[in-house]
Amino acid sequence: MPSRPREGKFPIIERERVADRVARDLQAMIAAGRLRPGDRLPGERQLAAMMRVSRASLRAALAQLKEKGLITAVHGGATRVAAQDEGAGPPPPKEPTRH
Length: 99
Description:
- The protein has three helices and four strands.
- By secondary structure, the protein is of the alpha+beta class.
- The protein has one domain (3-81): Arc Repressor Mutant, subunit A (Orthogonal Bundle).
- The chain is elongated and about 50 Å long.
- The termini are far apart.
């Protein structure tokens, strides 16, 4: 956590929202390749428990990542790591399959 100097000997410790920390950690996992494009994230309840944060904090973190175009989420469905060229928009239409 960053700190800044103070007039005395001791630094002032900056506060950080839990959601910001969760978003930063997940973004670091994506950048490091631990979460790759197309990977499905665990469900909200499970992921919040795994990270030991509230569901509200997790939801706020996921909203940050979605806004940055790093994940895609379908209401009531899966949350996935976005492909690098997807951006924040909806996924492209699927090509029809030929038999």
